[in-house]
Amino acid sequence: MNDWHQPWTGAARKDPHGFEGLEGLDGDAEAWSTPAPEPGSPLPPFRPSPSLQRTRFAIDLPDASTAAVDVDHMAGRASLYRDGRHVQTSDMPVRFPLGSDGIEVAASRYGMQRIHLISADGSRRRLDPAPGTPEHWRARLSRRHPEVGRALAACAVLVLTVNLILLAPQLLGAATHLPIWADRFTPFVSPIDLPAWANTILTVTTGLAGTERALTFRHHRLLDAEAEGLGG
Question: Which UniProt keywords apply (predicted)?
Answer without folding.
Answer: Membrane, Transmembrane, Transmembrane helix
